[in-house]
């Protein structure tokens, strides 16, 4: 009953629901950028976050990503020039890899840092492994790097700002400090490996022609992810909270069940507005997936002794 | 019919544009594009490397054998580009294979539709 209601509502308002979801996602990402690296007061204005979120609700997400990249560089430029140069180079490198190999996973690039901020990044491999492509691990890796770069800037803002006030020689030395801080991060590399490999594993198992392959994929992926985090984490000396990791992985498995429901029952994204013609007519068709069952009509029969 | 129209409007748009190329043409175009991206990527990595220890780079620059330095850089560039191109070759070969598979299904459905129309006309 509830399932059918969800299916009916989703099928009817799909376009609006997706736009609202995109608006919320971009707005959260913009607020996150503002709270982590909001160094430029003009760009930190909430109105700008709202405008970008509104643009994100109807523009292609890849365009929104580029816009957010520019906003990040703008903020970091206010902090220090060397930071801005390094961040710009890192973003260009990521875009080169992302736009070349996996340009359709734009939501993942935004969602990964957002979920990291909410302390549940372990949900991402399940989502992308089930719904993405084998190259979704590239988007996951880019999202992880973005989060850790922003996190580094947030934690070291004071030091970075004070180093930028000195002369050119110390500015050049500042590059070493910034690059070391941003890229020599064991925890970041561990997360790239763990989340990337888990995404790939879940994708591969979920495409096998065996019964319950999606459930098996989520289960196997979750176990491998936990082992990778614990084993590699210990050898890399990375800062991983085991409790949070276990909680996140369990949450990821639950998300897998929800995704399975939407992908198999609601058949989301399949409401199509198409146009075709034959010899006599043009057809303008809104095609809804025919998986909805009629909701049972409840008849209330009142039994009373009073007339 | 609706399925086909939906495909034409969605993923089919990209698939059909890819299928307009012969496999060899498509692959070489993509490999060239990857090479350009690779050159840009390598340039950025070199720049980051130089910036990482710029003062040492400047002091060493006048002492070092420039020819040897650029030879070393060229070897690294060759290895980097080769790996980048090989990876993109396999990725785009797989993508082309997937597109052909989708289009085969689409063409089969088109033929079925055409056969249905022909039958209707005969009746």
Low-confidence stretches of chain B: none
Helical proportion of chain A? Answer: over 70%
How many helices of chain A does DSSP assign?
13
Question: What count of domains describes the coordinates of chain B?
Answer: 1
% residues in beta strands of chain A: under 5%
Q: What is the approximate shape of chain B?
A: rod-shaped
Number-wise, the strands of chain A total 2
Order of strands in the sheet with most strands of chain A: 1-2
Oligomeric state, counting identical vs distinct chains: heterodimer
Order of helices and strands of chain A: HHHHHHHHHHHHHEE
Distance between the termini of chain B: 21 Å
Q: Largest contact between protein chains?
A: A-B, 26 and 25 residues
Q: How many structural domains can be distinguished in the coordinates of chain A?
A: 1
Q: Estimate the mean pLDDT confidence of chain A.
A: 82
Question: What's the helix and strand layout?
Answer:
The complex is a heterodimer of chains A (307) and B (123).
Chain A: H1 2-37, H2 41-44, H3 46-58, H4 61-79, H5 81-101, H6 106-117, H7 123-131, H8 136-155, H9 157-163, H10 168-183, H11 186-206, H12 213-236, H13 242-266, E1 272-277, E2 282-287
Helix pairs in contact in A: 1-3, 1-4, 1-6, 1-8, 3-4, 4-5, 5-8, 5-10, 6-8, 7-11, 7-13, 8-11, 11-12, 12-13
Chain B: H1 2-9, H2 11-19, H3 23-52, H4 54-61, H5 66-122
């Amino acid at each position: 009953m509830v399932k059918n209601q969800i299916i009916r509502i989703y099928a009817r308002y799909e376009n609006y629901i997706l736009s609202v979801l995109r608006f919320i996602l971009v707005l959260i990402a913009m607020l996150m950028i503002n709270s982590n690296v909001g160094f430029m007061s003009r760009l930190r204005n909430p109105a700008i976050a709202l405008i970008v979120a509104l643009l994100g609700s109807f523009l292609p997400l890849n365009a929104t990503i580029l816009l957010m990249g520019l906003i990040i560089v703008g903020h970091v430029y206010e902090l220090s020039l060397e930071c801005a140069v390094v961040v710009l180079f890192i973003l260009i490198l990521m875009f080169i890899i992302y736009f070349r190999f996996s340009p359709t996973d734009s939501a993942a690039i935004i969602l990964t840092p957002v979920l990291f901020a909410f302390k549940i990044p372990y949900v991402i491999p399940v989502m992308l492994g089930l719904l993405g492509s084998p190259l979704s691990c590239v988007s996951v890796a880019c999202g992880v790097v973005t989060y850790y770069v922003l996190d580094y800037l947030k934690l070291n803002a004071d030091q970075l700002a004070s180093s930028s006030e000195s002369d050119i020689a110390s500015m050049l030395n500042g590059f070493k400090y910034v690059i070391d801080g941003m890229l020599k991060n064991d925890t970041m590399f561990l997360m790239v490996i763990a989340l990337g490999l888990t995404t790939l594993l879940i994708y591969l198992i979920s495409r096998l022609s065996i019964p319950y392959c999606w459930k098996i994929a989520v289960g196997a992926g979750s176990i491998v992810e936990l082992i990778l985090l614990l084993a590699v984490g210990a050898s890399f000396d990375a800062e991983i909270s085991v409790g949070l990791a276990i909680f996140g992985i369990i949450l990821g498995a639950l998300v897998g069940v929800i995704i399975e429901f939407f992908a198999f029952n609601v058949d989301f994204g399949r409401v199509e507005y198409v146009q075709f013609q034959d010899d006599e007519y043009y057809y303008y068709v809104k095609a809804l997936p025919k998986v909805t069952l009629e909701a049972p009509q409840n008849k209330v029969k009142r039994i009373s002794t009073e007339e | 019919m609706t399925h086909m129209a939906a495909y034409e409007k969605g993923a089919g748009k990209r698939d059909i544009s890819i299928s307009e190329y012969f496999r060899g043409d498509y692959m070489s175009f993509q490999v060239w594009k990857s090479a350009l991206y690779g050159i840009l990527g390598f340039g950025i990595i070199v720049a980051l490397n130089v910036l990482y220890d710029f003062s040492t780079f400047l002091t060493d620059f006048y002492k070092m054998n420039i020819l040897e330095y650029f030879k070393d850089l060229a070897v690294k560039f060759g290895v980097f580009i080769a790996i980048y191109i090989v990876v993109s070759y396999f990725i785009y070969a797989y993508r082309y294979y997937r597109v052909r598979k989708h289009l085969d299904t689409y063409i089969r459905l088109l033929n079925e539709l055409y056969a249905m129309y022909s039958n209707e006309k005969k009746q």
